[in-house]
Write a structure and sequence with these properties.
Number of strands: 5
Strand order of the largest sheet: 1-2-5-4-3
Strand content: 15-25%
Distance between the termini: 19 Å
Number of domains: 2
Number of helices: 6
Amino acid sequence: MRKFLQDSLTEVAYYLELILSAILGLALLALSGLLLADLVGSLTGGIQADNFIQGFLSKAMTLAVGVEFIKMLCKQSPSTVIEVLLVAIARQLIVEHGSSMDYLIGIASVAILFAVRKYLFTQFDDSNNIIMRASQKVKVANIIARVKIPSEGTETLRDFVTRKLKEEEKTIAIGACVYLKNVALRIDNMHGDLITRVEIIKSIY
């Protein structure tokens, strides 16, 4: 009964997010029309170019953040979250006139986000499938993928998959799977005999 209620509430929340995304989409569409009207009006009116460009960029970047936010609501994954943060930080760097320290912090934040996307994640198919480097620690993978993979000490995904496949007397090859409760681990790529990428598949059965 408890699981049924949890699943039902999750389903309701999902559709509410879609409705909210549709409302935000309509609002952004209307604001885009107003932004276009401002641009047309600026061509005929006598306005200061510097002030107009500053205001125009601010509004345009705000709309871009809104678009990325809609993408995050429709398809929730670490990848879309990082994209929203990148656009939001880029807006602050481009539009706001902060101090040198503010710019330095913003640039460092962008660099960190790019590093996270490059080195922690190699590919995102959807919210239920995440492909990670086999050298990633199982404990870290549990936090990132929101799963509960039992591990021994500082075991990596490569070590865990190799150990489980040997216990089950299965061949270690691309496509080989280890099935756990509500999650499966599949070898996505190998370099020779070394496992290089592991796909974490949530709620497979």
